[in-house]
Amino acid sequence: MHERKDGKDKETSTARRVNKLVIGFDVANRIAQTGQTDVYVCITGPDGKPISVPALGSGNFTSRDDGDKIYTAKVPVDFEAGKSKSVQFAWKQNSEFQKGNYKIEIYHNGFKIGEGTRELKKGGIFG
After folding, report:
1. Of 68, 89, 100, 107, which residue is the least packed, with the fewest Cβ within 10 Å?
2. What pLDDT was estimated at residue 80?
3. Across the strands, what pairs with 42?
4. What is the pLDDT of residue 4?
5. CA-CA distance, 105 to 39, in Å (whole number)?
6. Measured on CA atoms in the order 112, 42, 4, 124, is the torsion positive or negative?
């Protein structure tokens, strides 16, 4: 997304225009108890390195498959037993987004519960 000066968001896939990633996903609760829990969002940049900005809340957690893992953001989610919930949050970082593919993984209780990829392009007439 490109957050404009008037506060409105405009969807874009041009890396130099993007100033935040809006990540959305659905969580279906079949076994967890009703209440608030944290999900961990891990974003890997085009260079293959995890995006981590401790000043913006990034840190480490333990995954069941990979052991110690760096997360980009911890997102609180209110689960309701037997229901599906849409979750959406925005990630703004303190540096520019680079062109390339960003891998986004979602973890809960150490298990990977979802993943996706978002491509940001160079832009311009030759992009």
Report:
1. 68
2. 80
3. 105
4. 67
5. 10
6. negative
Please give the full DSSP string across 72-117, using - where no structure is assigned. Answer: SEEEEEEE-TT-EEEEEEEE--SSPPPSEEEEEEEEETTEEEEEEE
Which tens digits make up the pLDDT trace of 82-115?
A: 788 899 988 888 888 899 999 999 999 899 999 9
CA distance 109 to 122: 36
Q: Please state, in angstroms and rounded to a whole number, the distance separating the CA atoms of residues 29 and 46.
A: 32
Q: Is the pLDDT of residue 30 over 90?
A: no
**Structure token digits, residue 55:** 């000043």
Q: Any idea which residue has 């404009």 for tokens?
A: 4
- Cα gap 109→62, rounded to integer Å: 9
Asked whether the beta carbons of 98 and 123 are under 8 A apart, the reply is: no
- The pair of structure tokens assigned to 124 is 């311009």
